[in-house]
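How a chain folds remains the central question behind the approach discussed here. In the encoding step, the backbone of a single protein was reduced to a row of integers, each denoting a local shape. We regard such an encoding as a compact summary of how the chain folds. The sequence in question and its structure tokens are set out directly beneath this paragraph:

___
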Amino acid sequence: MPLILKNMFMVVSAFLLFSGTLLAILIAGFDLRVEFTGSGLRPILSFGDDDDHFTELENNRSKSSSADSTSSTTLTRPTNRQIHGINSNETIRARTLKDTASQAYWTDFRGPNRDGNYSEMTIRTNWPGTGLKPVWEQPIGGGYASFVIADNRAFTIEQRRNLEVVAAYDVETGQELWTYSWNAHFVELMGGPGPRATPTWHNGRIYALGATGEFLCLDAVTGDVFWSRNILTDAGATNLAWAMSASPLVFDDKVIVLPGGSNGWSVVAYDRLTGELRWHVLDDAQAYTSPMLVTIHGTTQVLIVTATRVVGLGIDDGRFLWDYPWQVSTVPNVAQPLLIGNSQIFLSASYGKGAVLLEVSKVEDTFVVDTVWENNHMKNKHSSSVLHNGYIYGLDEAILACISASTGERQWKGGRYGYGQLLLAGDHLIILSERGDLVLVKATPNGHQEVAGFRAIEGKTWNMPALANGRLFVRNSREMASFDLRR
């Protein structure tokens, strides 16, 4: 070996040895946490022992409960639980909720239509240079679920030690109003611990799915259980590598979940009030996308992206309507589809897959699917794109991009936000970066125009932000915060 190469080898070896020793010291002595980013290459480093974090969370909740013990918004945790049944006070409570129905807006994963589009009111866009001041902020349990908001409450699901916890928070103060928990602890190396699926709010009920298939219907006011199932047990299915992630879809008298079982148990519909089985269809292995309710050529249907295809199903009995092959070689699909108009579907995936626009036609009673365009200009990995004025905005891997919906042509690409999440609010994109930054970007095809940005929460952030009544809610596996975007 030439002397210069030998010296370089010795220097590199010494550096790696020093780096490894320093890293070990920081992990052991200073509780350094190393989290994988979406690329799997650049780690996010932070400090904080898990046990200390949960102790801080428990102390925070205890202080909040004690300080507001006389408040009318503090709810006493019910002692009686009703499993596989209906609360006898359901009719009375439902009658009461009629007066607050107008307060329910962001009740589903990614908003009312599951498309990441916020249109309730015009938001504030003149963010100060120092960043928005949080209305409140506090620790939270682990996992990648987002919030749903209704009746002045924000709901999510978390990992707290060895428990999965559904929690309700007061939107004004962040005070924890109630929790319901059960023994479950899913963890894997890349993503870490915790439940993945965002709960769904519907007519005063919370439908929450845990990482290992526990599925509960809860009273949104009290946390009482109406019924519970385990969807993996029902379907005879094994869990996904990154766990159950699809948010339950509620419509009419049904709630749809995706256990991914064979022998007709890939997609399952339960009665939303009783939890009784209504129907089950398909043999597909499932992915990490959530079912959507769409109307194509006047036919309302359930739109599902499985591990191998996109499928349209009838809402009454799950009958097959149409499909199109859509499979990623490495990891099953994650990004949500976009409905464009009343007949087009946009799909995107990472790992070299790219994007496609489908035209779904109807000839008499038969649906026919054709490809409009297909390219690699948009590769959504952990996040999903949004549509605005004929243009699609999304994270192409870790970089924000804009493409034409009609042609797939790239308009621009710029702004490195990692594998974060984004939503559309009016003419702006609200981006929650992988490292916890909140960024405001103009939704325009005329180039990347960042308006403002600041660090909102610390640590790896793969959770979708939620927005209701002008209040923005963000979280990751350690922190949660709320920001006022009202004008």
The chain has one domain: 50-484. The CA atoms of residues 470 and 486 lie 5 Å apart. Confidence is low (pLDDT under 50) at residues 11-20, 22-28, 69-102. Residues 3-30 form the longest helix (28 residues).
